[in-house]
Amino acid sequence: MKAIQVGLLGIGTVGSGVFNVLKRNQHEITRRAGRGIEITMVADLDTARAQSVVGDSVKVVNNARAVIANPEIDIVIELIGGYGIARQLVMEAIEAGKHVVTANKALLAVHGTEIFAAAHRKGVMVAFEAAVAGGIPIIKALREGLTANSIQWIAGIINGTTNFILSEMRDKGLDFDAALKDAQRLGYAEADPTFDIEGVDAAHKATIMSAIAFGIPVQFDKAYVEGITRLGAQDIRYAEQLGYRIKLLGITKRTAAGIELRVHPSLVPTKRLIANVEGAMNAVVVQGDAVGTTLYYGKGAGSEPTASAVIADLVDITRLHTADAANRVPHLAFQPDAMSDARVLPMSEVVTSYYLRLRVADQAGVLAKVTGLLAGAGISVDAMLQREADEVGGEGSTQTDLIILTHDTREGTMNEVLAQMQALSTVLAPIVRIRKEELA
Question: Do residues 54 and 42 make contact, with C-beta atoms less than 8 angstroms apart?
Answer without folding.
Answer: yes
